[in-house]
Design brief:
Radius of gyration: 20 Å
CATH class of the largest domain: Alpha Beta
Shape: globular
Number of helices: 7
Largest sheet: 6 strands, antiparallel
Strand content: 15-25%
Structural class: alpha+beta
Helix content: 40-55%
Distance between the termini: 39 Å
Oligomer: single chain
Strand order of the largest sheet: 3-2-1-6-5-4
């Protein structure tokens, strides 16, 4: 019962903090730190999906060594691929599961079990959250639901934050161009050369 209370309190705290943040990096770090602390696990990472390379690119992590994080590219087609297609996947033994892309590196890091949860926004996959435990862990439905809820909250916030940052960038460029125009004798459309606002689909393609 105590664990559930901690999880619900963490979820509310993170959701409130995320709603006030417009920095996608801050949102990602806040999410992995909260999940690691609430579940008292070894570590947690948040990845963003790069459609051009079909790889999961690390956005942020908490509790894991640089050596493990730099072990190599994480293929979305090989590494726990099922979690990107069908939903959350729990790996009880990293050394005895063909879905693990880097089993030896995981064992060296002291990882026994992994929970992988996809981040889907508007029906589009944008990344994944992974939870790592030092001891063999049979993830409960409450564990999965908790991580999945925070992953979805973070995913929506990251997408929106990156959109807002892109929109603000365009506005600042427009202001700068207008100031320069007043000093020129030749006329020019105020929107010429200004990057368009970033759409949700663009954000996914650029990850």
């Amino acid at each position: 019962m105590e664990k559930k209370v901690i999880n619900y309190e963490t979820m509310l705290k993170v959701a409130k903090a995320i709603s006030h943040s417009k920095d996608p990096e801050e949102v990602a770090l806040m999410t992995v730190e909260s999940i690691k602390t609430a579940l008292n696990v070894k570590g947690c990472s948040l990845f963003l999906f790069n459609r051009k390379t079909n790889e999961l690119e690390l956005a942020t992590s908490f509790g894991l060594s640089d050596e493990y994080l730099n072990k190599g590219p994480v293929s979305a087609l090989r590494s726990i691929a099922q979690s990107l297609e069908e939903g959350p996947v729990a790996i009880y033994d990293v050394m005895d599961d063909p879905r693990i892309q880097y089993p030896k590196e995981a064992q060296k890091e002291g990882i026994s079990s992994i929970l992988s949860v996809p981040i889907v926004v508007g029906g589009i996959l944008i990344g994944a959250v992974r939870v790592y435990t030092a001891e063999p862990w049979e993830f409960t439905l409450d564990d999965v639901n908790f991580v999945q809820a925070l992953a979805q909250i973070a995913g929506g916030a990251i997408n929106m934050a990156r959109y807002v940052k892109g929109l603000k960038s365009s506005i600042e460029v427009l202001k700068t161009m207008k100031e320069v125009q007043t000093q020129r004798t030749t006329r020019r459309t105020p929107y010429e050369g200004v990057p368009r606002s970033v759409s949700t689909s663009d954000l996914v393609d650029q990850e």
